[in-house]
Design a protein that fits this description.
124 residues; mainly beta; four-stranded antiparallel sheet; 11 strands
Length: 124
């Protein structure tokens, strides 16, 4: 499965952004999906995950209450709605897919497939 994130940009602190991950090559309806972010100074960081049927979601402490992950299996996409953005949210964001449909440790570690990212810049 190929994954491509889009929707990043340069915003000010307090603004919102919606990121979208488009999957191709395979239908993702049975995959657990997640969002991650990375900066040159930090290792890959888990942001949010969602189960195959959207019954379960999981967020990092920094994302909880501000970010919302969702998926549209019919359109093979996963989204991340980010609100009240902070300068420390600046990173390259990318999505990942796990062969197991539930939220597992494997997904939290990065999944089985990872795609190209999209840059998010937040100015104070």
């Amino acid at each position: 499965v190929q994954l491509q994130a889009s929707g990043g940009g340069s915003v000010q602190a307090g603004d919102s952004l919606r990121l979208t991950c488009a999957a191709s090559g395979r239908a993702i309806h049975s995959y657990g999906m997640g969002w991650f972010r990375q900066t040159p100074e930090k290792e890959r960081e888990f942001v949010a995950g969602i189960s195959w049927n959207s019954d379960a979601t999981h967020y990092s402490d920094s994302a909880k209450g501000r970010f919302t992950i969702s998926r549209d299996n019919a359109n093979n996409t996963v989204s991340l709605q980010m609100t009240n953005l902070k300068p420390e949210d600046a990173a390259v964001y990318y999505c990942a897919a796990s062969n197991i449909g539930t939220i597992t440790a494997a997904l939290l570690r990065g999944g089985d497939y990872r795609g190209q990212g999209t840059q998010v810049t937040v100015s104070s």
